[in-house]
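Quick entry between incubations.
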Amino acid sequence: MGASRTTLYFLVLGVFLLLMVVVAAGMGAANLPLGDVARVLLEGLPGVPTAGGGIPASTRMIVLDVRLPRIAVAMLVGAALGMSGAVFQGLLLNPLADPFTIGVSAGAAFGATLAIMLQGFGFLAVMPFLGHPAVLPVFAFGGAVLSLVFVYIIARDHGNIMPESLILAGVIVASFLSALISFLKSIAGETLSAIVFWIMGSLSGRMWHHAAILLPYVFVCGLIMQAGARHLNLIAMGDATALQLGVDVQRVRRRLLVAGSLLTAAAVSISGVIGFVGLVVPHINRLIIGPNHRVLIPASALLGGGILVLADTLARTVAGATEIPVGVVTALLGAPFFCYIFKRRFHSGRGGDGA
Amino acid sequence: MPEGSSTAATAARRGVSGHAAAGRDASAAAAPAREVLFREAALEASAPGVSGSEARHDELLRVRNLSCGYGRRRVLEGLDFSLWSGFFCGLLGPNGSGKSTLINNLCRVYEPLGGSIELAGRDIRGYDRAALARQVAVVPQDTHVSFPFSVREVVAMGRNPHLRGLFSKGYKEDDPVVDRVLEELGIAHLAPAVITRISGGERQLVLLARALVQEPRLLLLDEPTSNLDIRHAVRILRLVEERVRTGGLAVLAIFHDLNLASVFADYLFMLKDGGIACQGETREVIRREVLREVFGTELLVYTPDELGWPQVAVPPAGFC
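Done. Structure below.
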């Protein structure tokens, strides 16, 4: 893949992301003129004169206090899922893998379900701290991490972790947790709708502090992933090849698994389960710039962020006042798109060469 | 320099072959021939007038009492042998005799169950992985690749053990070593092609190129030609042979085709029932009795005058 083509693609991704931010900030129950939105957004930057008059205070309030935090969270969650997806597909040598393949989503969903039910079942009186808004994300994160620990323990063989056993262990843990979730749902009573809504994924009502929680995960885990990208290319060729080419496969795999899993767990605990972003985004990028993880991971962060901002904007606007769970939107858009990619890939006889 | 040492190596091979043939009746075992071969090689290397850099016939890999296997299952037991710089060694044996297992243990994809493997006088467990990959490279059997890397990207992966730094560019687009090897193997035109979309023969050349850009001292080939037509097979083996003769590369290659083994290998190891059934200079090993013993089938061995080393033919049923 030529360097100039890659650079151009990154420019396109950057423009796409910025455009999505402006459009998302403008659209909603109150449709704001894009020019005003852009001026409000630019105000904060140094060297840009204050827009001052001409822009109603309500516009500034809606953009900066209501929509922008939600956009920031969407961007970070999308970036997290995109990067993790690229890493998991490489680690598991499986283009069909995604951040949820090894059971992170089931664990998070179980934790969240438990939290919602504890809150709904009158435990509040006994343990008032359960009412704190941080309880649900903490439970979800804990559930995700706990399920990952189980998956690792099951998949470990003499201290080594192999891709096939990870996938199988993920299936085992996820199906067990799904059964537990179903059981909890069956006795959930009036909290059922809250559980269902959370599992489908939503960014409704997310604030700056949610973005602040997510940012360090995206930054630190992203750095770890980028540092392992060169070795991930070799691991994606198979363990034997990577070992023969001087990669300490188990160490690199462990490090990337932990980074990818923690990042996914953090994203899911904030947003709920949002499918297809982590699966489709790396595929689109691979078709255009090839499978080299050194460019694939950052490109998947940008594209994942942009696409989730777009999906979330659709989620809160297409059905008028009613909000659709954003996980439903990504699945509705993602599944047919994924189908198109595979049709194209297998029938045109070209993989991701993009030539 | 390459010209001179090439002649020397060939001369050594031919001369020793004659010697070994003369002593064939005296010993059924191949060991004496091997001693002669390497004694002469060592003498040649240390002969006055030969500079240190041209002393290529050093013992590079020394295997002592090696046992390999998977978990509790022992596949190979008690192997003792050496590999020498500037020698093309072949590894033969029936299916399941542990040839690939041995290769995978020599490059530390698997850890041996017992015994030791010394590379240049140091146990290979004492090398870190990158340092080992700068010394030992493997050409695997054609393997499935899940992702559409370009040929240049795949070949450049062979530079990995020479790179430092976590964020350093995985491989330079214009790495001169990569370009040189692509050129030498005649596959420069394939560089932008996608690895999953080229033919089996081309892919095997790409895997050879990836091993060569590691700039190893020992090259292990795991049935490199088993899926190839004769043209590609000969081409790959000639490219490897050239580097043995002129570059002092040490080679251990698994062969299924006894005739190719006879033509290209200086020295052969026959694996059977978890051990080395026979090892020696090629003529000593490609013999009817040895082949009957190892493969359990009756084969004809003849030495065409114009060739000077043995070839194997399958006799029709009832011929023998």
